[in-house]
């Protein structure tokens, strides 16, 4: 999946988003998404990288727990047949929940 295709995927979620972070003072009110590529997932053969995929983190930020919004994000991933791992944390300093969807494309 190309970067443009990842952007199109996130756009389908219908939530304001940015790659990695919003500029200082530019972040919208929650909910919003930041996505990034934390690492590559590589398969080696004969001492070279034979195949490489991108790990993508889609971070959903909300100021309150929002199961319906999470279901909407998950519906987009499922519609594209993308397997995801999901974790959640409370960020005390920001007073935000972060629901992290980790995928490989």
Features:
single chain; 105 residues; alpha+beta; 6-stranded mixed β-sheet; 2 helices; 6 strands; 22% helix
Short description:
The chain has 105 residues and is α+β, with helices and mostly antiparallel strands.
Provide structural commentary.
By secondary structure, the chain is α+β, with helices and mostly antiparallel strands. It is built from two helices and six strands, in the order H-E-E-E-E-H-E-E. The longest helix has 13 residues, at 67-79.
Gyration radius (Cα, Å) is 15 Å
Apparent shape: globular
**Overall pLDDT score:** 96
- Work out the helicity level: 10-25%
| Poorly predicted runs of 5 or more residues | none
Topology:
Layout: H1 3-12, E1 17-19, E2 32-36, E3 40-45, E4 48-62, H2 67-79, E5 85-91, E6 96-104
Parallel strand pairs: 1-2
Antiparallel strand pairs: 2-4, 3-4, 4-6, 5-6
């Amino acid at each position: 999946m190309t970067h443009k295709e990842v952007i199109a995927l996130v756009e389908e979620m219908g939530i304001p988003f940015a790659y990695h972070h919003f500029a200082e003072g530019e972040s919208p009110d929650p909910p919003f998404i930041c996505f990034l590529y934390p690492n590559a997932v590589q398969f080696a053969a004969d001492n070279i990288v034979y195949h490489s995929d991108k790990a993508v983190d889609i971070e959903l930020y909300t100021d309150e727990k929002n199961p319906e919004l999470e279901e909407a994000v998950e519906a987009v991933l499922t519609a594209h047949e993308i397997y995801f791992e999901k974790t959640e944390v409370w960020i005390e300093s920001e007073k935000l929940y972060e629901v992290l969807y980790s995928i490989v494309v």
